[in-house]
Amino acid sequence: MSAPRLRLGDDDLPHIGAPMPTQSHTEFVSVHANDGPLRGHRRGEGAVFLGVPYALPPVGVLRWRPPQALAPWKETRDALNFGPDFPQASNPRLRAPRQDEDCLYLNIWTPTLDRAARLPVMVWVHGGGFTAGSGSDSRSDGARLCQEGAVVVSLNYRSGLFGFLAHPALAHESPHGVSGNYGLQDQLMALAWVRRNIAAFGGDPGRVTAFGVSAGSASIALLLTSAQARGAFDRAILHSPGAGRPLASLDQAQAAGERLGTDLQALRALSAQEVLARTTLLNPAVRGLTTPRVLRPIRDGWLLPEDERPVFMSGRMHAMPLMVGSNTDEGTLLTRTWPVDTRVQWQEQINANFGPLADEAAAWYPAQTDSDARTAVAQMFADTQFNYGTRLLAQSMSRLEDRTFKYLFTRRRPGHTDGPHHGEEVAHAFGNLTTLGDGAHAHIDDWDETLSAVMRKAWVAFASHGNPNVPGAPQWAAYRAEEDNHLELGDTVRPGALWRKNQLDFLDRFFDQD
């Protein structure tokens, strides 16, 4: 299909193959933030500061405890390299120098260090299924996005067993009688650091947008329901949020946590690699699609007192401008290793996840032959894990805030017959297209650069004033629940509506059973 060419100005459409932003610089620049002075790399009129600590290292006796405040410092700290990632499986897109439990760092890209600029601030919360990910991911490098007129921040937070282990012994030492959800508390501490310090980097502490993908956007969605997170950010952009499913209770998660052992002192004495090796005890290879997961945020009774779905549906979430969307093929990549190659295996998934409504589920996700089974399960995964939460958030927020917008990302990479897969839109939103696939330029073309320019401008416009409409691009209408409208971002940029309506209506009926 030949896509229309939007005209946003020649400067907005760099040539394919333009070099990715690099971290090698010889010129340094210093800023005096409220928490202390920092030295970073100068980038034209702006700068990048990497590996900025926002909390004490959560090691030793601080393992599995809420993040602790870092005292202000007087001597200039170098912020020239990414901080460590929390221990996880290796990933070539992550650029941190090493893995370490000492991982609570953030990164800042700014087009100007003029305090008077007061630019909108965009804080990226990475995905990774609550077991992986990093603010150093090359897809979310902020160098190009910040040039649209925003200060871009990415953060690390504890995940996997390091960030979400719940255990009775941990609850015993908690003043609130709870455990788990440490990764969410890390995010809140990082957001508080941004409010306190971002003016030194040209940002407006009164215009902070939290945005993220997958587990990152699921985290932001949960924070929209938490009294502890009130005022933490002002706007939200959610890429494929894993939202709306039941949360594990504190009791369920703590019972699962005892699989690691009951002696907390012995657990804290384990090396980080020994902790990482125990991840599979709480994180099965094939997840339940409609049932709670224990190695992720849980309903702890304090930070998250309730399941999020009833909070959303009753209008008790924090009201703010919201942009939310998903991709057309959210499930294929994430179920590629599942044993679902026959109708028998498909039926097992149907029965396990939908119980008394299994027959209706089979009608909406049919598999007539063995060859249909994998596709049907991928669609079930996509709808239950991402598409349902996307619509639920748009519907719920639009009742509280007119500035609610929904998108559907449909752009397949040239030459591909499936996709766009989960997370593939991130490179377009940040302008880092050479990170798609294996990085070869054959995976993108001129239209990808145009689409990326549209998205970057829209994302920053939304962060600036709560409206993603920009000159030269098609009108993006605010979301209306009765229309379930979205803006398609694909081979064309155009309005659309009612994405997977019948299947998502079925999921509403299913979740209403409880």
Structural summary, described in words:
This protein is of the alpha/beta class and 514 residues long. The protein has 15 helices and 13 strands. It has helices at residues 143-146, 160-164, 168-172, 182-197, 215-223, 250-257, 264-269, 272-277, 308-313, 343-354, 358-364, 370-398, 425-430, 446-465, 501-512, and strands at residues 28-33, 36-43, 46-53, 77-78, 105-110, 119-125, 151-155, 203-213, 235-239, 322-327, 404-409, 485-489, 493-497. Strands 1, 2, 3, 4, 5, 6, 7, 8, 9, 10, 11, 12 and 13 form a 13-stranded mixed β-sheet that branches. Strand 8, helix 5 and strand 9 form a beta-alpha-beta unit. Helix 10 crosses helix 11, helix 10 (343-354) runs parallel beside helix 12 (370-398) and helix 12 packs across helix 15. The chain is globular and about 65 Å long. Mean pLDDT is 93; it is low at 1-25.
Question: What's the arrangement of secondary structure elements?
Answer:
Elements (H helix, E strand, L loop, with lengths): L27 E6 L2 E8 L2 E8 L23 E2 L26 E6 L8 E7 L17 H4 L4 E5 L4 H5 L3 H5 L9 H16 L5 E11 L1 H9 L11 E5 L10 H8 L6 H6 L2 H6 L30 H6 L8 E6 L15 H12 L3 H7 L5 H29 L5 E6 L15 H6 L15 H20 L19 E5 L3 E5 L3 H12 L2
Parallel strand pairs: 2-4, 6-7, 6-8, 8-9, 9-10, 10-11, 11-12
Antiparallel strand pairs: 1-2, 2-3, 3-5, 5-7, 12-13
Helix pairs in contact: 10-11, 10-12, 12-15
